[in-house]
Amino acid sequence: MFTGIIKEKGKIVKIQNSIDGKTLTISGKEVIPELEIGDSIAINGVCQTVVKIENNQFVVNTVNETISKTTFSELKIGDIINLEPALTANGKLGGHFVQGHVDTIGTIININRLQKTAEFIFSFPEKFRKYLATTGSITIDGVSLTTAQILDTSFKVALIPHTIETTIFSNYKIGSKVNLEFDIIGKYVESILLYNDKSNKTGNNNTNNISFLNQFITQPD
């Protein structure tokens, strides 16, 4: 589990291809002291397992399934990446709950750089629209952000200078591909409602869903 607050920007220093996927060697400074073999770390929002640590570098093995569903297919030696170690029990939840399980790939279609802040507009597959809410949470390349505007196949986020400077948002341009993870709460709500629909073979499904959700809502006296 992660929070979407990037610890530092790392760098891809080596890529080894194999029939099973890729082995990535990544350099970093701030994350290294707290890493151990077997730890989870988010790389551009993708949960990976540390298999080796040496000096200021660590190694992860990426399987073909992950490569095909994320922007890892485009990674090159020298690329700068977002790094976040896994959340600890006593850690700060500064963003929102992030699993490191990428749902889809988005594309930057517009960048509006203002005096200090910047607005980014991303396109994404319409089937994921149901997981977005205005001022709700979205994870972009591992960064926890808030949606400012939502359309059927695009959404906008606004960034402060600190976020731009401390993440790879500073490197983005129109056409850049990004990993998107939608808020897990929306996915759980959808799963509950779909299961409830299957359990109720008769009657109005919308009414059944409302009645079902009311069981978990405490009404004031």
What's the arrangement of secondary structure elements?
Elements: E1 8-18, E2 21-27, E3 40-43, E4 46-54, E5 57-63, H1 64-69, E6 80-85, E7 104-113, E8 118-123, E9 137-140, E10 143-150, E11 154-159, H2 161-166, E12 177-182, H3 184-199, H4 205-214
Antiparallel strand pairs: 1-2, 1-6, 2-5, 3-4, 3-6, 4-5, 7-8, 7-12, 8-11, 9-10, 9-12, 10-11
Question: Whole-number average pLDDT?
Answer: 90
Specify the structural class. alpha+beta
CATH architecture of the largest domain: Beta Barrel
User: What's the Cα radius of gyration?
Assistant: 19 Å
CATH secondary-structure class of the largest domain: Mainly Beta
- Major pleated sheet: 6 strands, antiparallel, barrel
CATH topology of the largest domain, what is it called?
Answer: Elongation Factor Tu (Ef-tu), domain 3
GO molecular function: riboflavin synthase activity
Keywords: Repeat, Riboflavin biosynthesis, Transferase
Function: Catalyzes the dismutation of two molecules of 6,7-dimethyl-8-ribityllumazine, resulting in the formation of riboflavin and 5-amino-6-(D-ribitylamino)uracil.
Protein name: Riboflavin synthase
Please provide a written account of the structure.
- This protein starts with 7 loop residues before the first strand and ends in a 7-residue tail after the last helix.
- It has four helices and twelve strands.
- The protein has helices at 64-69, 161-166, 184-199, 205-214; strands at 8-18, 21-27, 40-43, 46-54, 57-63, 80-85, 104-113, 118-123, 137-140, 143-150, 154-159, 177-182.
- Strand 3 and strand 4 form a beta hairpin.
- With 221 residues, it is of the alpha+beta class.
- The strands form two sheets. A six-stranded antiparallel barrel has the order 1-2-5-4-3-6. The chain has a six-stranded antiparallel barrel with strand order 7-8-11-10-9-12.
- It has two domains: 8-85, Elongation Factor Tu (Ef-tu), domain 3, CATH 2.40.30; 104-184, Beta Barrel (Elongation Factor Tu (Ef-tu), domain 3), CATH 2.40.30.
- Helix content is 17%, strand content 38%.
- The longest helix has 16 residues, at 184-199.
- The model has no long low-confidence stretch (mean pLDDT 90).
- Catalyzes the dismutation of two molecules of 6,7-dimethyl-8-ribityllumazine, resulting in the formation of riboflavin and 5-amino-6-(D-ribitylamino)uracil.
- This is Riboflavin synthase.
- Its EC number is 2.5.1.9.
- One of its GO terms (biological process) is riboflavin biosynthetic process.
- Pathway: Cofactor biosynthesis; riboflavin biosynthesis; riboflavin from 2-hydroxy-3-oxobutyl phosphate and 5-amino-6-(D-ribitylamino)uracil: step 2/2.
